[in-house]
Amino acid sequence: MTFFQATGPREGAIINELYEDGAGALQLRFYCYLGLRGKDPGGAEEQAEQAQFDSDQGYKAALLSTLKRTRELLDEGRL
Predict the structure, then answer these.
(1) pLDDT at 59 over 80
(2) Rounded CA gap, 79 and 72, in Å?
(3) 8 Å CB contact between 35 and 12
(4) CA 63 from chain center: how many Å?
(5) Which band of pLDDT confidence, cut at 50, 70 and 90, is reported for residue 54?
(6) How far is Cα 13 from Cα 10, in angstroms, rounded to an integer?
(7) Comparing C-alpha atoms, which of 20, 26, 24, 14 is closest to residue 62?
(8) Is the pLDDT of residue 23 over 90?
(9) Average pLDDT, the chain
(10) Which of 33, 22, 18, 5 is nearest to 63 (CA)?
(11) Residues 6+ apart with CB under 8 A from 15
(12) What does pTM read for this prediction?
């Protein structure tokens, strides 16, 4: 599933890929190709944004929640 950031301070794409690993366990692979509009690549603003994404309150928390719910739905036979 791909989400495109078309408005707001960020631009780019967020890609969530569900797959089964070699043991048959459901996994979530996450790609994030984002930049800040009007900001220097690798600059102070972008580094601060990256730190937020990497924190326990950022995208990591959202990904863990998504993966948990997906596993629950799979266990319930709803996926």
Answers:
(1) no
(2) 9
(3) yes
(4) 6
(5) confident
(6) 9
(7) 14
(8) yes
(9) 86
(10) 18
(11) 1, 2, 3, 30, 31, 32, 33
(12) 0.58
